[in-house]
Structure formats: C-alpha cells, structure tokens
C-alpha cells in the first residue's frame, strides 16, 4: 500500500473525501475531542526541498519565540520512511543518523563542523577559533556550524540541512538517530555492534543511552532506534 493510499484511508475513516491526498483535516469519532490536520506541499515531487523548507520554517519559529524559549539553539536529525522503501534523512549540526546494513554501520548524515565550513562562516561575517577550549567554534562560542535558533549567532550560522535519500532493502536492519552525546563516546560501528542482537527498538535505544552514560558522556544524550526487520 502506498503512502497516498494510507493517507486516503485515514481521511475516509474520519469522514473526509479522498480527492486531495496532500492536505486535509479531521475529527475523531471517539468521545474525546481530538482533531488533526496535515498539509504536504510538493513533498511527493521534491521531498528534499520540502524537508529543507520545513527546517527553515522551524528555525524561524524558534527565533520568533526566543523570548520564551531562550536565545540558545539545537541541532537536529530527522528521518522519513516512504512506502517502507525510501528513507529521507536530514540533519543540521552534529546530530547523526547511522544505518545498519548486514551488520555494517553507514552514516547517512553529515557532521556540520566549523572547521569544514569556515569559508561560509567568514563570508557571513563570522570567524572560527579554537580559543577558548580545544575545538573549533563559531565566533569562539559554538562547536557546530549549523543549528536551529542561537539568535545571538544566527547571522553567522546556517539552518539549511544536509538531505540524503537512501533506498531501504532487505539488507537494512535498523537506523540510529542520536545527538552528539552518544557519538562523542561511541563510533558508528560501536553503536551498531552494541544493539545488533537486540530485537526490540525501545530496548535498543535504552541500551545505547545507558552505554553512553557508562562511557562518561557529558553532553546531552537523545536516541531513537527504528528497526526494519
């Protein structure tokens, strides 16, 4: 069953027509007043562009709410699985997506580090410095070159994600989506090896976060595991 067919069935269930699979809204028939809405502009034709627009909109919303949320920022990694066959992965910063295929780790994201994008940062009026500290930082403050938010540094940062599309076949076993608190203490292959014999996805994510803590990770640790088999 295609994604469009699934969306159409969802719409029919809530009493909607099936003329437009890209947009709609509905209300549950349960006792609770639950409503939903969705809109997918050009996602089926140009999924990468649609994801980039979503990241841009998210960044704008975070900046607009900086008074409530604070002036800090965040990295991000996302994955969309279409028809159980096509995986669309996007990221900004050092949150990472790692796919396991036949037991071998394959990184699908790009770590956006200041030293690899120093020319772009310089062209925006910023600079990259190892002082203070021991890693390259944007304006001597932020250790990633792309992020949501970070209003005080926004002129020198990018929020455009790296986007890639990966075909999912029988070789694909699972994907790990995690923040840098995991990757600072574990290599891609170490993370894959840690959970390759665990069948349950939730237990796998818990195992990875526990292992990162055991390895004395001092950064934030967020982890999602999606099992394909």
TrEMBL record:
Superkingdom classification of source: Eukaryota
Enzyme class name: hydrolase
Cofactors that this protein relies on: Mg(2+); Mn(2+)
EC id: 3.1.3.16
Entry annotated with the keyword Metal-binding: yes
Molecular function as annotated in GO: metal ion binding; protein serine/threonine phosphatase activity
Keyword Magnesium: yes
Cited PROSITE patterns: PPM_2
Classification via InterPro entries: PP2C, PPM-type-like_dom_sf, PPM-type_phosphatase-like_dom
Catalytic activity entry: O-phospho-L-seryl-[protein] + H2O = L-seryl-[protein] + phosphate; O-phospho-L-threonyl-[protein] + H2O = L-threonyl-[protein] + phosphate
Sequence ranges assigned to domain PPM-type phosphatase in this UniProt record: 15-228
This protein's UniProt keywords: Hydrolase, Magnesium, Manganese, Metal-binding, Protein phosphatase
Annotated family: Belongs to the PP2C family.
Protein name: protein-serine/threonine phosphatase
């Amino acid at each position: 069953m295609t994604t469009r067919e699934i969306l159409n069935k969802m719409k029919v269930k809530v009493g909607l027509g099936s003329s437009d699979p890209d947009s709609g809204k509905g209300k549950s028939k349960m006792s609770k007043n639950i409503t939903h809405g969705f809109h997918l502009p050009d996602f089926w034709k140009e999924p990468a562009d649609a994801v980039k627009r979503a990241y841009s909109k998210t960044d704008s919303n975070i900046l607009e709410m900086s008074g409530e949320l604070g002036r800090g920022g965040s990295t991000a990694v996302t994955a969309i699985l279409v028809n159980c066959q096509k995986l669309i992965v996007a990221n900004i910063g050092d949150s990472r997506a790692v796919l396991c295929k036949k037991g071998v780790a394959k990184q699908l994201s790009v770590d956006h580090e200041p030293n690899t994008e120093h020319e772009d940062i310089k062209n925006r009026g910023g600079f990259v410095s190892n002082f203070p500290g021991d890693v390259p930082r944007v304006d001597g403050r932020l250790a990633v070159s792309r992020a949501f938010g970070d209003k005080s540094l926004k002129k020198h940062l990018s929020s455009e994600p790296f986007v890639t599309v990966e075909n999912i076949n029988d070789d694909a076993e699972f994907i790990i989506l995690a923040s840098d608190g995991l990757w600072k203490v574990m290599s891609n292959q170490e993370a894959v090896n840690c959970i390759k014999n665990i069948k349950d996805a939730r237990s796998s994510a818990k195992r990875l976060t526990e292992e990162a803590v055991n390895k004395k990770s001092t950064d934030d640790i967020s982890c999602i595991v999606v099992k394909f088999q």
